[in-house]
Amino acid sequence: MIFWRVKPLNQILETAEKKSLKRQLGALQLTLLGIGAVIGTGIFVLTAEAGQKAGPGMMLAFVIAAVVCALAALAYAELAAMVPVSGSAYTYTYGVLGELVAWIVGWALGLEYGIGAAVVCVGWSGYMNGLLKANDIALPEFLRTGYFAGGGFDLLAFLIGLAVTVLLVIGTSKSARVNSVLVAIKIVALTVFIFLAIPAVKSSNFEPFLPGGWGNPLGGAGVLGAAASIFFAYVGFDAVSTAAEETKNPNRNIPIGLIGSLTVCTIFYLLVGYGAAGSVGAQPMLGANGLPLDPGTPAMAAACAGSEALVCSKEPLAHVMRLLGHNRIGDWIGIAAILALPSVILMMMFGQTRIFFTMSRDGLLPDALSKVHPRFHTPHVITILTGIVVSVCAALFPVGKLADTSNSGTLLAFAMVSIGVLILRKQQPDRARPFRTPFAWIVCPLAVAGCALLFVNLSMTAKVVFITWAAIGLVLYRLYGYRRSQLANQNA
Q1: What's the burial of 2, exposed, middle or buried (CB within 10 Å: 0-12/13-18/19+)?
Q2: Can you list the GO cellular component terms from the UniProt entry (predicted)?
Q3: Do 98 and 316 contact (CB within 8 A), yes or no?
Q4: 295-321 b/e (C-beta count within 10 Å ≥ 16 → b)
Q5: Closest C-alpha among 458, 472, 365 to residue 410
Q6: pTM of the prediction?
Q7: Cα gap 268→264, rounded to integer Å
Q8: What CATH code is assigned to 23-487?
Q9: pLDDT tens per residue across span 29-84
């Protein structure tokens, strides 16, 4: 059976008490952590890719992705308030669907956070290298691009990964304070963009509105294809729930952090998308067949040669400002991205380490990974290991379709959490629920359907990588976790 070795929720809470993390985060800090995790590479970088796939219809893509996230957030809020411990979807699944499904979800979250953090490191490096080049102090080409992107070793991507690792080892509360400053910078930059771009909107820039149509199950162009990619722009809000064990009054503060951060980010995304598409246009580059070209391909690069189109820019928001004649403000928005993107790396690595920390505590991964630093009260071993892996991957690999790959793990986790809420409503209807998902029997099935819709519209590369990653995880579970988990020994 799949649903075996289910870990009772009461036991999950007892296990957390034996090797717990210090509670030091409040509702405001959690909301800022959520905003810090969400607003980043997605809106600063992927806006151009969304425009290439869907044209002005990318605004619909933002809405579709936001609705799926909102539905999943309501399910997350109920389980996070009931089980306020580290581990996010992994922990919730363990307590409802059993060990095997929990392992698959935890392993998938590793794909989400690990690849996601590396993607943002590379994105940050691109902005920083551009700034250095503009000031005639550029690094050698060999050190500006990863080996698998045609270069050698992306030094800046490697260094920012290590810097965030050190910050996370020092302490969660210190990380949260630094993150609060970075969030403020992002909010100011996006607010300035909105106030300058929206007055320049022209209705003619929205025609045609859906040049790529709605898309197809094989992924690629269209609104659904853009939604599957732009979903990365929302990835990270669930990292708030991974901080449950370090939250003061989690029953109240976790739902506030989840829903509050998602609401703020959605409003900003819609306003930014409207301003960008309406002010300078977001029509895609078309191929000989009349359909939008696939971003990141040689054909797309050839079409963009010498073009000032928004969909060709690697820094779309700054590019829009320059096209509107605000060159200095465009430069400052680029600098804001450089300052702000590390907060996204921070939260993705934060989520990765807390999930593997919890899996280790459950015996599914080596015990050494759940050691807590005596001074900083952080899981320093898994944090250092994660930081090294993320930094090396960022230094060698290109952004490419990694955002889609990261999304595949996220969508699985969201779907499992939504299913878990319904199962728990049936199995344990009398258990205290500080936060209840409204209309759960409507919201949760819609969340699962939304996740499935976006998954089938991911690129084929993302689907293949996801299946391969899952297969590797199952082998590791059979060789290690199956025999060494606490539940296996407990029932022996």
Answers
A1: exposed
A2: membrane
A3: no
A4: beeeebeebbeeeebbbbbebbbbbbb
A5: 458
A6: 0.78
A7: 6
A8: 1.20.1740.10
A9: 777 777 776 776 677 777 877 888 888 888 898 889 888 988 888 888 787 777 76
